[in-house]
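Two entries, shown back to back:
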Amino acid sequence: MGRTLGSRNCTTARASADVARYGVLLMPTILDKQATVDLLRHEFATIAELCSRMTDDQWDVQTCLPGWTARDVVSHIIGAESMLCGTEAPSVDVSHLTHMRNPIAEANEIWVESMRPLSGREMSERFEEVTTRRMAALEAMTQADLDAPSWTPAGPDETYGRFMRIRHYDCYMHEHDMRFALGIEPRPDVEDLRSALDEVATGLGYIVGRRAGMPDGSRVRIDLTGPVSVGYSIRVDGRAAVVPSFDAPPTVGVEMPAMLFLRLTGGRHDDGARPTEEILCTGDRALGTQLVDNLAFTI
């Protein structure tokens, strides 16, 4: 669930066009170069370690992503990073596949389909090779390079640093697609979780105003618990926008673990249903349920 260079994990083009209307700050995102590179390095190393422990059977375990096994998730990441290295997509027929919903999914599937015959060891080797190349390229970049304007899956008027935060978000989400499919505990490392939440926070106006359709005048409070405890206040007043605070009690409030929030905003339903016992709604409970049911903002 990443759409970096086309994937399941980033805001859709339509969502990106809507975020301005629904209160997302449009200033270019400036991120510390070394911190951003370190997050990606740690993420790549974590996925590589997870792959090294997977048995032949585990590579073919179905994830919550339609049509994708653990192998396919890793193939997708390899494909995205290969494209960033300048490698052309392979020529593969994907016309026989039925789970694709849009051209971006089709572009992703070309890489995925091309690697389905590979063994787990071959997959691990390809992952290590391409991520090593990417890390070398990123380390050679300067802070100014990351601050430079860049196309991103969230829109054209952003920075390369934001693009790389999206790559981290994408990989972190896909790491957990595999973990949940394999019955492995989530990895709520604070820095990774905080970065992923920062990326989702850029879409909160869109989520609340467009996806969940909170009525005008609503004051929506979202509180997340766990290793990263954070709260967001979103006011709907002609548009939905994140604000520092409210001058009256929230119309609706929801509280849930931060990792569950990531899974739901990423369109994941790992158990086939929402674990409602982990979600606390206050205020207008009907609106709270409507909000929780419509948190997904990625493809």
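entry 2 starts here
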Amino acid sequence: MDKPNFPPNFLENLKHEPGFDDINFTNAHQNQDAPTSIRLNPFKPSAIKTGEQVPWCPEGFYLDSRPSFTFDPLFHAGCYYVQEASSMFIGHILKQIKPDGPVKILDLCAAPGGKSTLLNSAMQPDDLLVANEIIKTRVPVLADNLSRWGTANTIVTNNDPKDFSRLKGFFDIILVDAPCSGSGMFRKDPDAMNEWSENNVALCHQRQERILADIYPCLKEGGYLIYSTCSYSHQENEDILDWLCEEFELESLQIDIGPDWGIVETQSPQQQAWGYRFYPGKVKGEGLFAACLQKTGIQEAMTNFKNKEQQKVPAKEIELVRPYIITPEQFYYFKVNDDWMAINRAHLESLNILQRNLYIKKSGVRIGKLAGKDLIPDHEFALSIIINKDAVLQTELDREQAIQYLRRDNLVVDIVDKGWSLMNYEGQSLGWAKLLPNRINNYYPKEIRIFSKAE
């Protein structure tokens, strides 16, 4: 590998950061490739070959080499997520702080969805995840990745952080994976070196303060704030922790870590707030900083909110939809235009509040449309874990057929029954096709089909 061309003053600045080892760090960037790691979906068990386990994530595994995920049907089925190993530490924090009983969690800067699916994996159906993305063009990939994960206890929003200040004391846990200068990604994305500068670090620090100030009111009293960046700069990490503890009623929490994990535990200079640094060469992963704080101050709660009236739907139509759901009594059914939706019944009140205050792009699972007494099923529904597979046709595909299906090519399979069929690979659903007497209509979504012709 070529010697990394670090930006001017970068290494000199880094020499003063806690736990930094110049020789080890440079060697990792010069002689070690970024490891490939995946995280399994606990809701979709499958026979995926894995390697060494990520120490801080039971569902995380390193792979010996990087395969072509594009041509793995189980990837498209949502059986795993390709995620950088260090970032999986956020799930380790969540498991230590998550209280008993239902919680509402906000992932503020959520696209593309790695940390959202990570949080969701540790949640129960009565817990609610709101995954927000500020940049509108990044929302579709976030929604797609959460749809692949398959749960119905998620809501995707597209809002500025200041919009959440209206939801006073609403969330029990907030993750702010803040926009940053990106130095932790230098090995994985060398082009990021060209964008790094001391001025950009200072601008990111200001942006991070503004985001955190905007989001603070919607964290409930006793709730937890998880803060993370992929930067090594103390201005974006320990200095932010000092500012949080000085400006707001927040108390730093120490997180249990393994002595052999290679994570550097730090404390901020003024408030001694705990932080956790990941350096390539010390950990098998990329650069990360993470910390957790608990809100100790009294938070005014939301009052005088009015429920937004849902579109009234005929009871007869609901009865046509319910048989397709594996535990129909656990869900609330509603319509968005002509599309039937389902969300865990426990989240009806939260859905009403969020609809009144935020711009929602996805809520629960989109089931499909009714045409008379027949359901025209949606792709989201095929990938969900709430579908009653006994109520629909299923067609098992081999790998070659699965790739053809994912490319939206013509399929040739033996047709026994006619109608809508789940197209499965190794028992995992990929999407829908319509089986007709003399052909198969492939309904895999055009916008996410495999475009590449070569594996």
